[in-house]
Protein 1
Amino acid sequence: MKAAISRLNCVARIGLIICFNAISNAGAQSGGSIKVDEDAVAFASQLIQEGHSIADRKGAWREHKPSPDVENQFIRAHGFAEYAKWHLGVDERYAANTKRRYKFPYGDFTNVHRCGLLAVKARAQQYGYGEIENAAAELERKLESKPNTSHSAANHELNNSKRNPTTVAIIKQIAPQ
């Protein structure tokens, strides 16, 4: 009988430990250490005001999101302070000079992308980062309310030298002058 009670007590303690661990992990994921980068929000807003925005379609972020190689080139050329401006979230658990610190990218280091803001909103909502979701929604409203500042997808491809040279050559041939 004592052995059964002892086993039950041990199982209960293990269960409590698992529950506390799950609760602390959930807290870390939802609004824990990732905060809105207000400087990045201001920078994105300024870019939108200046017309450096693309009102592209939902789901285009996979095509427009900078590759890790492009990110590394940008960091080498401009440093982490500039890299940070292109991310709406900052994870304070990581050092300032690491890519892991910067979360929720929204642009291609030239333009703010509507599809990037939509991706930020979706991910922020999924993981419970309400402030980041709201910041992305506000930037999306600004982008969509700005008349005649969005580039067409063809012009974006043409002006973005990081794209496939074959694609750029084809767009130059078909784009109206």
Note: Residues 2-29 form the longest helix (28 residues).
Protein 2
Amino acid sequence: MAIDMDVVEDTKVNFELIMDIMSKKLIKISADSSAFEVAKMMSEYRVSSVILTDGQNNTVGIITERDLVREICAKDLLSSKTPIISVMYKLLPLITIGKNSSIEEAAALMIKNGVRHLPVVAEDEKNANHIIGMITTTDIARHLKHKLEDSSNSDKSSSLLLLDSLCSGEEPTEEKIFEAE
């Protein structure tokens, strides 16, 4: 089930904004670093993604734990000898969302692009492409959990619809995996 963006736009005034739930804990590392250094930093800071920067501290992309598994581990590459930039170029272009967008818009964008992390950018002219936070499917699920715990039945149905939409983009279930074997 997908979120109808026309419905999101029509009712946007009732939705909460990304900047209210995004993580402001941004971890940056040089795109020249090895995959091992990136994984070590993710582990040290307990994050599931890091922002890659060039020599002038400009953002060039993000790398997630999933990227490391699929592009390094699954291919049996030596992480200490694999430059993370070589992995990044095989991935999707950087997809961002504005801080004043709704949580529902973020979920729809994640589903549409098959991503679980969205860098959040400032929306003023001066800092148009400046990443100020990160929103993940975990952030959205945590938000929905709190909202469901504290809400009336009418609020629950919209939260459940959003949660159902997010789940539709999830990994295959065990049943689907076993059917494929």
Note: The first helix runs from residue 5 to 10.
Protein 3
Amino acid sequence: MKISVDRLFHPDVKAIELDQPLRLSGDLALRYPDGVHVSARITPIAHGVHMQGTLSGTERETCVRCLEPYSRPTEIDVEETFSEDVGREQDFYADVAPLVDRSIDLSDLVSQLLEVDEPLAAICSESCLGICPLCGTNRNVATCSCEAHTVDARLAGLARLRDEFEANDKNGR
């Protein structure tokens, strides 16, 4: 979705108020099935425009601990400057976005902001117990009888060394 900002270059227009729901496509449409909402104010600057506002929506995620789906509310501050002095070929390296044909590509901006806001490891809650690595039981739903302190075979040598140090500390050595 492109937003024309041509009227901001006339002296009688001070700002454009944007209050727009936006449907997404591709992977983002699956993660944000209800779309997102952009609320922003676009103001003119020398050779461009400045957009300030918020982007909000609800993202469907899968918890990396318990593998259960959950919804995560998202609210992102939008602070973006667009300049006619920046060309499309300079977009990747410039501090400001290009203002091409005096219009803003809102879909592209929203996609970039949502991708940057994506957590590295989405967790449904800080108190999530996750799944048992031995039997696969979701420990938020049920308890399992698996031994909690199993040592990874790759770290067994370090565990023995730790046990020796603890035994020496108890014996006063």
Note: The CA atoms of residues 50 and 81 lie 4 Å apart.
Protein 4
Amino acid sequence: MNASTRDDDRLLNMAEREMVAQTRPPIADALTKEELQALGKRLREARDRSRRIASQQQREMRGKSGPRGAAPARDNTGSEAKTAVLVEALKRVTAALRKLNRPAPAQVLRKALEAKQAAVPQHPSAGPTASKGHASDGQQAALRPRGPARGRARVKSQQGRPGQAGPVKLLAGSPHACYGRMPCG
């Protein structure tokens, strides 16, 4: 028996000690689902009782409530520690029940496959369209130059007109072109 188990047992009475001992791994693994459910119910009742006592002691310490015994409580750390031990035992029981209720991996996969096969597709095909679209009109858009060629054609048409800038020239001694409207040179 390790030190934490001895400390836990010191906080509990005999009935609570037996309940907590049943939640520890070698014994808890052998219990049936019904036995685990009954154990969980008893642990919840013991936890609730311990919480009630701890809160009553806390109220007595603050002076909000009269003493239940001959003198008011001076400390409730034992009751709070007892509640913590019972909560941990209840968590172990809940985990063991969850483990028993968990379906086998093969069942999960089989169920997922059945659901996938039975599902209606979310995005059905578009089916036949209303018309064949713009390409079948027989009318063709006027061919216009697109992209960079369009800009070059405009520059060439403006060259040589009166009042317009002349052709673009390179600056003397510079690899960069002069982009202004005034002739470079």
Note: The chain has a mean pLDDT of 78.
